[in-house]
Amino acid sequence: MPFPFVETNTRRYRPGLVVSDGAVGGRFQLLWVVMITGAGHEPWPDDVEIGPRHLAFGLPIPSRVRVAKITAAEARQAERVGRVPAEILEQVMDRLASILGLSDRNA
């Protein structure tokens, strides 16, 4: 996915985790995606660790989900490389709900 950098005006293609329930935006077909970054980067408070099974999820290096960095990208730009297990997705969704101030994300 093309993720914008906070520090500069550039974009870089990197892995991401789709957190929308499929494409949103009608005819525009957008996905909401949170960034996945290498575990060697300094952790942020809401990061979710992928753990040592990164290869099983299609990631070449140990990684973490950087929940604070979310973007919308065109679905046609996405390519599935793997799938994280339900427990990691649950942690990500709980942290997103917390950031958004939602006490119960199923409400």
Describe this structure in words.
By secondary structure, the chain is α+β, with helices and mostly antiparallel strands. It has one domain (2-99): Roll (SH3 type barrels), CATH 2.30.30. The protein is 13% helix and 30% strand. The strands form two sheets. A four-stranded antiparallel beta sheet has the order 3-4-6-5. A hairpin with a 6-residue loop joins strand 1 (2-4) and strand 2 (11-13). The chain is globular and about 40 Å long. The mean pLDDT is 86.
Secondary-structure element series: EEEEEEH
Report the total helices. 1
> How many domain units?
1
Strand order of the largest sheet: 3-4-6-5
Question: Low-confidence stretches at least 5 residues in length (pLDDT < 50)?
Answer: none
CATH architectural grouping:
Roll
CATH class: Mainly Beta
Q: Summarize the main sheet.
A: 4 strands, antiparallel
Distance between the termini: 29 Å
Secondary structure tally: strands:
6
Shape by Cα distribution: globular
Strand-residue fraction? 25-35%
Rg for CA atoms: 14 Å
**What would the CATH topology be?**
SH3 type barrels
Helix content: 10-25%
Structural class: alpha+beta
Can you give the mean pLDDT?
Answer: 86
